[in-house]
Amino acid sequence: MPSKRVVYSVLLPTYNERANLPLIVWLLVRAFEKEGQLENDEDFEIIIIDDNSPDGTIEIAKELQKLYGETHIKLRPRAGKLGLGTAYVHGLKHASGDFIFIMDADLSHHPKFVPEFIKLQKENDYDIVSGSRYISGGGVHGWDLKRKLISRGANYLTQVLLQPECSDLTGSFRLYKKASLEKCIAANEAKGYIFQMEMIVRARQFGFTIGEVPITFVDRLYGESKLGGDEIVSFASGLLRLFFTT
């Protein structure tokens, strides 16, 4: 009896990523197609979830689909900007993969780390593998001192208040078993900056196993950072909600 085909699905939400999308897709394809990376019964797909970007991101996505083929590039656009959590839900509906990568499309998450995620998951059968800036070998490039202090401070507070046994709660470069991702999203009540943090908190509640891979986070090359005052306030209120309710 032939073995079941294993597919890795990458959910790639986009909004005004016209300049970044061609490079991130090329790097992902190269990472997956690297000799020896995937077994003969393994494959990958990249699901682009564009929220009606005014810069024409979807047109670039269509050209990439022509270049790499509909098997590897799937376009699942939405009518407008509806939030990260719902983008994952939308992408999951169309994902054929047993394993789901989530990552940013702005090149802050380099696909060169993808093989390390897959390797660690296979070796330990983890439910989730999370990229971490805060373990040995990880780091951040391109942030000023203020941004680094905000990130470190936020991460320290989450460690003290929530004790999640995971070093980087606000990171968004992760590999999930599909069933684990579906269950965590269904239980997640957060929006915005705190969404990824609550995903790990819920994962721990469900008893999911979590491994960590050191990554280097690079500030976006093109476009503007989405972190602002509103996101910081949202993070603080969300952190307190999780502290009192979990």
How large a portion of the residues is in β-strands, by DSSP E?
15-25%
Using the alpha-carbon principal axes, give the shape: globular
Strand order of the largest sheet: 3-2-1-4-7-5-8
Oligomer: single chain
Order of helices and strands: EHEHEHEHEEHEHHEEH
Instruction: Report the biggest beta sheet as strand number plus sense, adding barrel if it closes.
Output: 7 strands, mixed
Q: How big is the Rg?
A: 17 Å
Task: For the record, give the distance between the C-alpha atoms at the N and C termini, rounded to a whole number.
Answer: 45 Å
User: Share of helix among residues?
Assistant: 40-55%
Tell me the number of strands: 9
Low-confidence stretches: none
Q: Briefly note the structural class of the backbone.
A: alpha/beta
Mean pLDDT: 87
Question: Tally the helices: what do you get?
Answer: 8
Textual characterization of the structure:
This protein is an alpha/beta fold. Helices cover 42% and strands 18% of the residues. The protein has eight helices and nine strands. The protein has helices at 21-33, 57-68, 84-94, 114-124, 145-162, 178-187, 195-205, 229-245, and strands at residues 6-14, 42-50, 73-75, 99-102, 128-132, 139-141, 174-177, 210-214, 216-218. The strands form two sheets. The chain has a seven-stranded mixed β-sheet, sandwiched between helices. Helix 1 packs parallel to helix 2 (57-68). The longest helix is centred in the middle third of the chain and has 18 residues, at 145-162. The radius of gyration is 17 Å and the shape is globular. The mean pLDDT is 87.
